[in-house]
Write a structure and sequence with these properties.
149 residues, 5-stranded parallel sheet, Rossmann fold, 26% strand, two-stranded antiparallel ribbon, 36% helix, alpha/beta
């Protein structure tokens, strides 16, 4: 299974990667840490699944130029790129925030999937709240990845 994980937080990346490996024994994992990296990873073949954080930096550290701009809705930019390219990769959003910002509106995670599907042409399987102290996100992610979402 070929999965693109778009995540800039090392701790969360480690936890998500372990959850993915428990679902797919043969995991071909590609990791992108910024909006720019994620867009670059989408220039080739499709993925069996994309796991996408919403808050991402625009780009990585640039020597002499500092780090990329923090983008609370950087994942939305990735979804818009998926739409622009008319890709059909299944996407699961995994965020630490209780809501997603889109076009100046805050959308509660319970309504985010339906709201985003109405506004962006992307195959969004689920929107999951990542909480360090709660294992529920792992079960939800496994369900989404295995096609039972």
């Amino acid at each position: 299974m070929k999965v693109l994980l778009v995540e800039d937080d090392e701790y969360k990346q480690t936890k998500v990667e372990a959850a993915l490996r428990s679902v797919a024994s043969e995991l071909d994992l590609v990791v992108a840490k910024t909006v720019r990296d994620a867009v670059g990873c989408m220039q080739g073949d499709g993925y069996d699944h994309i796991v996408l954080d919403i808050a991402l930096p625009s780009h990585g550290q640039v020597p002499g130029g500092g780090a990329g701009l923090p983008m609370p809705a950087g994942g939305i930019e990735v979804l818009l790129e998926i739409s622009y390219q008319s890709r059909h990769d299944p996407v699961t959003i995994l965020t630490q925030y209780p809501e997603i910002e889109y076009d100046g509106k805050l959308v509660d995670l319970t309504r985010a999937r339906r709201f985003l599907q109405k506004n962006i042409q992307a195959t969004i399987i689920d929107v999951i709240h990542f909480e360090m102290d709660n294992e529920l996100w792992k079960h939800q992610l496994k369900k989404a990845i295995s096609g039972r979402g």
